[in-house]
Each structure stands twice: as structure tokens, then as C-alpha cells.
Amino acid sequence: MRMLIPLIFITLSTAVRSETHNMDKTINIDGQYQNRPASASERLKQQRKLLEARNEALVRKQIETLRLRQEIELMKKMKRVFAKNLENLENM
């Protein structure tokens, strides 16, 4: 009887702890935790996040390329204007 009471308390405390178990992980027969396979919605969410990151990187690259082209074009215009001004000063 003395051994039965501690055994009951241990069993009850284990049962209480198992109720608060995180449901993202499953437990094997060996007692080792393993991650459960991702559901279809979780896989779609991960795929969407990956695609959004790729798209954002692509958009940044395209914006940078466009900015660089515009900057080069502006530089050429300024070079022509300064060359023209220098020529006008020399002709005076």
C-alpha cells in the first residue's frame, strides 16, 4: 500500500505534464521527439514566403539596374552640357 500511493502520484503528475505537451512534435515509441511532417497549408506558406523573397530580390535588382541606367544617361547629358559651355567660353 505504501508503494502504491507514490506510484499514483507519479502517474498523475506525468499525466498532467503530458497534457501540456507541444503538439508540433510527436513522440516515437523509443521516447524520442520528432517533428511532424508539414501540412499542405504549411508547405504552401513556406513556398509563398520563399517566392516573395525571390520576387523582392528581383524587383530590387531591376530597380537598381533602372537607376543605374538613368544615372548614366544623366551623366552623359551633363557631360555634353559642360562640353558645350566650355566650347562657348573658348569662343569668347
Describe the structure concisely for a colleague.
The protein has 92 residues and is mainly alpha-helical. The protein has helices at residues 4-19, 40-91; strands at 25-27, 33-35.
Overview of the molecule:
- The chain is mainly α and 92 residues long.
- It has one domain (4-91).
- It is built from two helices and two strands.
- A two-stranded antiparallel sheet has the order 1-2.
- The longest helix is centred in the last third of the chain and has 52 residues, at 40-91.
- It is rod-shaped and about 115 Å long.
- It starts with a helix and ends with a helix.
Beta-strand residue fraction? 5-15%
Structural class, from secondary structure content? Answer: mainly alpha
Distance between the termini: 119 Å
What is the chain-wise order of helices and strands?
HEEH
Task: Return Rg in Å.
Answer: 35 Å
Which shape, going by the Cα principal axes?
A: rod-shaped
Query: What about the largest sheet?
Result: 2 strands, antiparallel
Number of strands: 2
Which spans have pLDDT < 50 for at least 5 consecutive residues?
none
How many individual helices? 2
How many structural domains in the coordinates? 1
Instruction: Enumerate the strands of the largest sheet in spatial order, edge to edge or round the barrel.
Output: 1-2
